[in-house]
Amino acid sequence: MRVNIALAQVVNQQERWQHVKVAPTSLCALLCQRSQTKVGVLDIDICGPSIPTIMGVQNEQVHHSASGWSPVYISNNLAVMSVGFLLKGPEDAVIWRGPRKNGLIKQFLRDVDWGQLDYLLIDTPPGTSDEHLSIVQYLSQTQLDGAIVLTTPQEVSLIDVRKEINFCQRVGLPVIGVVENMSIFICPKCKKDSYIFPPSTGGGEKMAADFRVPFLGRLPLDSRIGKCCDEGKSFLEEVTDSPATQAFVQIIHKIQAHCSQEQSSRETETGEAMDEG
């Protein structure tokens, strides 16, 4: 009975979120923020919470109020919640078994006071572990937009990512699409292309076709992106001339178009159901 009550509280909280996605989150959030939409970022990489560093808020703390945990606000329309805010320092290791991870994820979903959101972006660790099972279970009663699957072109990465897509399909989680990261390296001086990770078996595009899911695009490798992440800066603003920035903008527009279409479809179905009633 206690579990049912907790899940009901989670679902009640989710009624205030318009779109819920599992995504390569920090970049999505920073770009969505530009359009003045209200975005929440939930970092459920419990053992390796990197979102606070990437988004430049690693020294912040969360506060508890009568309405729940207050997330860390990067701007008026962008808020972040991560286990990284609950640790004593960035070097602290989180040595937890599955049940404790599950409990924290449930608490994040139930108790964080996001307010009204247009998007809730969820950053997950690689693979198909406790975190993924928990988030799918707790959000199963909501209308998830789906997962964005990130891969690199080489077969050693694709082997694992195929399992992740299979996981999504088996648990009924829609796959919005596949993004191929580090697809090529473009030299900033000579502008020549180099394949750091050759797509020996067809890369992310072929894998997406094999699973019949959309291929959203390729992100070139740019060393300046890593530097911006280390410094907590947005490369979308710092490195506007990067081919990676331009590619990411196009990918995000596809994701937003998908979410808008799903929202319209749900509203149409709701309207038809009310008419029939």
UniProtKB/TrEMBL annotation:
PROSITE patterns the record matches: MRP
What the entry lists under Pfam families is as follows:
ParA
Say if the entry is tagged with keyword Translocase.
Answer: no
For this protein, the record's InterPro entries field holds:
Mrp-like_CS, Mrp/NBP35_ATP-bd, P-loop_NTPase, YlxH/NBP35
Q: Membrane-crossing residues?
A: none
* Keywords recorded for this protein, A-Z: 4Fe-4S, ATP-binding, Iron, Iron-sulfur, Metal-binding, Nucleotide-binding
| Gene Ontology molecular function: any one | metal ion binding
The record ties this protein, via SUPFAM superfamilies, to: P-loop containing nucleoside triphosphate hydrolases (SSF52540)
One GO cellular component, as annotated: cytosol
Which biological process terms from the Gene Ontology are attached to this UniProt entry?
iron-sulfur cluster assembly
Tell me the PANTHER family matching this sequence: CYTOSOLIC FE-S CLUSTER ASSEMBLY FACTOR NUBP1, NUCLEOTIDE-BINDING PROTEIN NBP35 YEAST -RELATED
The entry's protein name is Cytosolic Fe-S cluster assembly factor NUBP1 homolog
Which organism does this record belong to? Pomacea canaliculata
